[in-house]
Amino acid sequence: MLASCSDPETLSGLSWLMCYLTTGKHIAFYWAFGTVLLLLAVTAPVALLFGFGGAVAARSRFAPLSWLGRGYIAVVRGVPDIAFFLFFVIALDQGIEWLRHKAKCPDWDQPIRQGNDFIVCAEAKMPLSTSAQWVHEVYGFWLAVFTFALVFGAFAANVLFGAMRAVPRPQIETAEAYGMTRAQVFRRILVPQMWVYALPGLSNLWMVLIKASPLLFLLGVEDIVYWARELGSTKTPQFTDYPHGDWRMWYFLFLLVFYLGFTRISEIVLDRIMLRLSHGQETLANHKRTGPIGMNKAGPP
Amino acid sequence: MSCYDTLMDYGLRSLGYGERLLPRSDFTLCQQFVLIGSGMIWNVYFGIVALLSGFALATALAVGKASASPWFRKPAEWVIFLFRGSPLFIQFFFAYFLFLSLKGQVPAFDALTSAWLGAAVVLFFNTAAYSGEIFYGALRSVPRGEVEAADAYGLSGWSKFRRVIWPTTLRLAWPAYTNEAIFLFHATTLVFFSGFPASRQQGDALYYASYFADKTFNPFVPYPILAGYFVLLTLVVIGVMGMIGRRLNRHLPGAAPRRARGFGLLMR
């Protein structure tokens, strides 16, 4: 808070706006952007890990594991992601509390589901009802990360599954001819080569992930959407030093611009990476960039 | 109360017919099936309206983006960038509050603040932008030989577009467009969670599913029911789009229906 902001009623114009935009709640709003970026930074590698596991499972020669992998991909892709978010936030919470309940209170004899209530012993609550507010927030955030990773892991699994199949067959056959085992072929040939085929799909997935990040709001995290609604709504002079009308439209316009900038920057960076990785490779991405073969002939030497 | 009675009471609840109050206690499986199914009416409505109206704008956007004149190209590029580059969730919020303040000044905009029109407008622009990008990619992939053949037949301008370029564009874009249609139907579940009010508790399938999950504190019944409905809807969409796709490809020798993978397959 700036020192000149102590008496907002005397302010006007630009200085009022300056003071308004640096109130404590606005600082919390700016920090919420950090929350979103943190979520993306944590979720992306975890989702990739899940995706890798899903793709490997789907390729497995052991049928039940293969069904599990394919089922994971198919179910998550076939159902709206927001339904998964709403489902997992409660389901995970209840699952964790149930497991803790079983472990910590073995001599509890009442049923856990009593009509419309879900009752576990006090020691099994997660987080404990005595713990601080920030523990609750961090726990909620990690539930959100796990849910995001689970959903986007299925999409990543689909991309990686396709990429593993796109690795040219002769490469595998050559490796087999050298006497490599199945595990060696996988580790030395398949995985290193699949990335360039997976990259277009993965960069698309990153864009989808960015655009899904405001759904954090539905998971009960105090994110940018929460603050934009909170700060933008009509404020009367009784409750605040900075009364204003319904400004939610402007706050959401700001979020819209933020996301447009974010996706644009990501797009430029990912294009650069793609160009670097597919340098000299005959992939679809490279092919498209230079146009169909034979179209560059007329250009300058 | 038998399941038939429940169907009579709540079958069209999402449209405002039947019982006025939602069930409040002693939830039966039948109630959950019927109400969530009733909510699917809205998902299907939003999806079909946006898909049909968005198709026309998407074609215009694709042609505009491929146009040589900046007067057509720039606006098309900006519309596509605006709606593809930002989250649909934020678009819904922004549009709702925009419509709300428009309504404050001009009462004629009243209908836009209710979901049936306002959300449909947002979805229309959104799907048009996504499909416009798909069609644009397909438009640029039309084989040169086909265009040259059209030139050789003396076709030009509108008739060349109508008879050669456009059908081929659709044929190339169809697998990706099918994918877009599926994701559009999924996206309709966002409507009632993003500003647009469900007046008199007339909501979509997810609205009722989360209502039951909140009331019973048991997510393991309503959400799998919702998932079942959506898997069915997805299968229907794939079936219908596949039929259209086969019709588009009917003259090609040995035209197997192309699976939805490979060319320009983008998720949203």
From TrEMBL, chain A:
A Gene Ontology term for the protein's cellular component: plasma membrane
Superkingdom in the source lineage: Bacteria
Segments crossing the lipid bilayer: 28-50, 71-92, 139-161, 189-209, 249-270
The keyword Transport is assigned to this record: yes
Pfam families, A to Z: BPD_transp_1
Primary localisation category: membrane
Entry membrane topology: Multi-pass membrane protein
One GO process term, biological-process aspect: transmembrane transport
Domain ABC transmembrane type-1: 33-270
Keywords on record: Membrane, Transmembrane, Transmembrane helix, Transport
Compartments where located: Cell membrane
Family annotation (SUPFAM superfamilies): MetI-like
The family this protein is said to belong to: Belongs to the binding-protein-dependent transport system permease family.
Protein name: Amino acid ABC transporter membrane protein 1 (PAAT family)
Gene: hisQ
TrEMBL record, chain B:
One Pfam family here: BPD_transp_1
Protein's membrane topology: Multi-pass membrane protein
ABC transmembrane type-1 domain span: 40-244
Keywords: Amino-acid transport, Cell membrane, Membrane, Transmembrane, Transmembrane helix, Transport
GO cellular component: ATP-binding cassette (ABC) transporter complex
Entry-linked CDD domains: TM_PBP2
Keyword Ribonucleoprotein found: no
Family: Belongs to the binding-protein-dependent transport system permease family. HisMQ subfamily.
NCBIfam families from the UniProt entry: HEQRo_perm_3TM
PANTHER family for this protein: L-CYSTINE TRANSPORT SYSTEM PERMEASE PROTEIN TCYL, MEMBRANE COMPONENT OF AMINO ACID ABC TRANSPORTER
The protein, known as: Amino acid ABC transporter membrane protein 2 (PAAT family)
Gene name of the encoded protein: hisM
